[in-house]
Specification:
The protein has two domains: 237 residues, Type I PLP-dependent aspartate aminotransferase-like (Major domain) (Aspartate Aminotransferase, domain 2); 121 residues, Aspartate Aminotransferase, domain 1. The strands form three sheets. A seven-stranded mixed beta sheet has the order 1-7-6-5-4-2-3, sandwiched between helices. 48% of the residues are buried. Helix 1 runs parallel beside helix 5, helix 6 runs parallel beside helix 9 and helix 8 packs across helix 9. The chain has 390 residues and is an alpha/beta fold. A hairpin with a 2-residue loop joins strand 8 and strand 9. Helices cover 35% and strands 14% of the residues. It has nine helices and twelve strands. The longest helix is centred in the C-terminal third of the chain and has 23 residues.
């Protein structure tokens, strides 16, 4: 078999990391010149900038008017943990675990909160759990898009419209890239550093009226850390949803988040963002269809993520290697591409099957994804020759 020639065309931006993700096209530090540095985040102008993040996010996502949205500490992880510790325990809970982050939420619910009536519905990387088992009388915890597996939910039909339980949805690699079924969800979380390429450490927490009602009528059996407290004196802390944060936020990161949201508006809002992500997925789909070695980790086409695109190596030489050497081979490909300066940080997640992971969120140009694909063929052939002697 002839080896692939070294390509001439390189991606303009080689940043394909799944987090922190690529900055929006054309970004420079001058975009942050208006940041309210050295000011109290509680002063009028800085608080207004934080609230601008909330207002613009709501508008772009098409969030229902009766939902609340706030900025919370510790990225998406903090937002999810805040929801789990504040809301769970009132009724049994189902957790859909099909990759590392959703499995992490399951671990926290079972081993940290120690809920005896928690039921974990699992699936291996590349698949979704048996959704027919979801009980509408239970609370439900899920990750809408598997950042480490490249598997997303294609619809929310498995969630009953007349459900009794709350649905807590980790949407960190889905928000701004996919349509979210707000009417079927009660808590939605994400972070700034994913689809819009913002900087880390801040999370977004969106609550439906049903979630707010739970907060006001249910008190968990365990103590809540200060940064998790959404209720004070029996009343919802409304300031959190108007730009008042529980702890001190970075005004530099807030300015960056606003810049990303303004860019999102310029490219057509949510439809434009989705179109960019889907164009990248379409380019990879066409390439995989003709590849003699690459396959999607996600087995069902409709469930393939348009942001975290996970690939496996299906070539005979690779599958003949021992598991440890398979992981070594995939890592060697990623290292080689980084050395060439054409793709940074595309090794598969450490707990996932050996392979590659390309971030194709909205800030990544689809043309850069297309330019990368011939380089994947080249890197594959280089490592095949090195490791298999073919």
């Amino acid at each position: 078999m002839a080896s692939a020639a070294k390509p001439d065309l390189r991606p303009h931006n080689p940043n394909f990391s799944s987090g922190p993700c690529a900055k929006r096209p054309g970004f420079t530090l001058e975009a942050l010149a208006g940041a309210h540095l050295g000011r109290s985040h509680r002063a009028a102008a800085p608080k207004a900038r934080l609230n601008e993040v909330i207002i613009r996010s709501r508008a772009i996502l098409g969030m229902p008017a009766d939902w609340r949205l706030g900025i919370v500490p510790a990225s998406d992880t903090g937002a999810v943990e805040m929801a789990l510790w504040s809301l769970l325990g009132a009724r049994p809970v189902d957790i859909l675990a099909h990759e590392s982050f959703s499995a992490g939420w399951a671990n926290d619910i079972v081993k940290q909160l120690k809920l005896d009536d928690a039921r974990v519905l699992t699936a291996p990387y590349g698949r979704l759990p048996d959704l027919a088992q979801v009980n509408p009388t239970h609370d439900l915890v899920l990750a809408w898009n598997g950042t480490t597996s490249g598997v997303r939910y294609e619809h929310a039909d498995f969630i009953a419209a007349g459900r009794d339980g709350l649905v807590i949805c980790d949407a960190t690699s889905a928000a701004f890239a996919m349509e979210l079924p707000w009417e079927k969800l009660d808590v939605v979380t994400w972070s700034w550093q994913k689809v819009l390429g913002g900087e880390a450490a801040h999370g977004m927490l969106a609550l439906s009226p049903r979630a707010v009602e739970r907060l006001l009528t249910y008190k968990p059996a365990w103590p809540l850390p200060k940064i998790f407290r959404l209720v004070s004196g029996g009343k919802l802390s409304e300031g959190i949803f108007k730009g008042e944060t529980i702890n001190t936020p970075s005004m530099l990161c807030a300015e960056d988040a606003v810049d990303g949201l303004r860019w999102a508006e310029q490219v057509g809002g949510l439809p434009g963002l989705i179109a960019r992500c889907e164009a990248s997925l379409a380019a990879v789909t066409g390439w995989v269809a003709t590849s003699n070695w690459a396959r999607f980790l996600a087995e069902v086409p409709a469930q393939r993520s348009c942001t975290s695109i996970c690939l496996t190596i299906a070539a005979p030489w690779f599958t003949a290697l021992e598991a440890a050497r398979q992981a070594e081979a995939a890592k060697k490909m990623a290292v080689l591409l980084e050395k060439e300066g054409v793709a940074f940080d595309i090794a598969g997640y450490r707990d996932a099957p050996p392979g590659l992971r390309l971030w194709a969120g909205a800030t990544v140009e689809p043309s850069d994804v297309a330019a990368l694909l011939p380089w994947l063929d080249w890197a594959h052939d280089q490592i095949r020759t090195e490791m298999a002697g073919v």
